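Before the break, one more example. Copy the sequence into your notebook; we will annotate it together after we see the structure.
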Amino acid sequence: MKNIYSFYVAILLPLGLLVSLLRLELISSTYFVILLLSYSFLYRPFIDGSRLVEKNIISKKDRWKLINPACRSQHFKELYILK
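Here is what the structure looks like once it is written out:
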């Protein structure tokens, strides 16, 4: 995921789908919260870690450390700004 545009699509599309499902009342608010927490603590660290591994910033075995938001904020520039 070295391409920054595909990275933004990968992080924003699931979030948009979650909000759409809630607004269309296809899921209850309880399921929305569960899915949102799953997105925040499972999906995003995996996607962010994959991008950092492909850019050779972190090793594959250190990807799990990105569950902590402070670790992701250390790599903010590499994740969201630099191509």
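Residues 18 and 82 are 28 Å apart (CA to CA). The longest helix spans residues 29-54. Try to locate both features in your own notes.
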